[in-house]
Amino acid sequence: MGHIVVMDDSEAQFALTSWSARLLAELQEALPREVECEWRGTLWVAEDESQLESARARVGSYAARGVAAEVLDATNLAAEEPALRSGLAGGLLVPGDGVVYPPALARWLLDGACRAGAELRQHVTVDSVTSGAITTSGDRIPCGAIINAAGAAAPRLTPGLPIVPRKGHLVITDRYPRLCRHQIVELGYLRSAHTMTASSVAFNVQPRATGQLLIGSSRELVGWDAAVNSTIVGRMLRRATGFVPALARLRAVRTWTGFRPATPDKLPLIGPWSPSPGLWIAAGHEGLGITTALGTGRLIADLMLGRRPPIDPAPFDPTRAMPEGAD
Ligand SMILES: Cc1cc2nc3c(=O)[nH]c(=O)nc-3n(C[C@H](O)[C@H](O)[C@H](O)COP(=O)(O)OP(=O)(O)OC[C@H]3O[C@@H](n4cnc5c(N)ncnc54)[C@H](O)[C@@H]3O)c2cc1C
Question: Distance between CA 196 and CA 42 in Å, rounded?
């Protein structure tokens, strides 16, 4: 979805997401318009008093780490987002969160890398990665260092990486500017994101700079089956219209799927892969890989160049012990 979201599940996750969001904000002036970078904030919606209580607890943890956040009662929630149904308990507003259009951001970063001397080879499948070389359809390219950043497919090139594909569906509507102002997410989303169940859906809607609304999201462990599952999409949309009833009247223009690279402890793998000297890993970012892209790039560069990174790299060590049976 291109949601740039500071998450506080663990110290390590907070450090990487907040640092990465800051790195993006520092680039704001340089980003071209196509990146559609907007700092709309996240509005986490509480359905009942117990969720609102958890929102209050999160405000404390955000404040302790220097991130602005505010608890809203039911009246203030309705004032912030009039399209939400009545009867909700309140919410948590994190005004510093943002939105980007990920393909345009990736393109811009790649262009910058190429201007700095990188050579881009597109539409080439890497068949294997060994110490000192990668091979692509018979071509062997010697490399001093290799970074496996193949997302959910990273274990195909580096067997043993604890990453599985976690499928997600998205729906995008025609242009309906002004229906929603913030990225609106139900607080129950955190449960959906953190529990490795076979399938789950949670309400998540994002107003795009184009006036379109991007509606998510689902999580499924179904291997590499990329087909749109109408039952899951139906569950997702019913969940969404349960929060924003007006969504039911809008026209959807596209539905598609993608794969989050999920790890058992919900943290990405960033650093050297010691079983194969010269091989580095930057993969396993589950649902936060757009948010954490810049921090990941900086962290891996610091580690490769022997510089001291601004955040502790240890929790992201690709060879760390993983919780048993978590995947
Ligand atoms: C529905 C959904 C919604 C999401 N929403 C958000 C969000 O709002 N915010 C957020 O921060 N994150 C979000 N994510 C997560 C985010 O998309 C991922 O974490 C991120 O894309 C991972 O980036 P990556 O570069 O590691 O992997 P990928 O984006 O998967 O890129 C890996 C690349 O490697 C290429 N590749 C793989 N194998 C090979 C090979 N053998 N040879 C050559 N190339 C290869 C692939 O083609 C691909 O281009 C979402 C994910 C999904 C599925």
Answer: 24
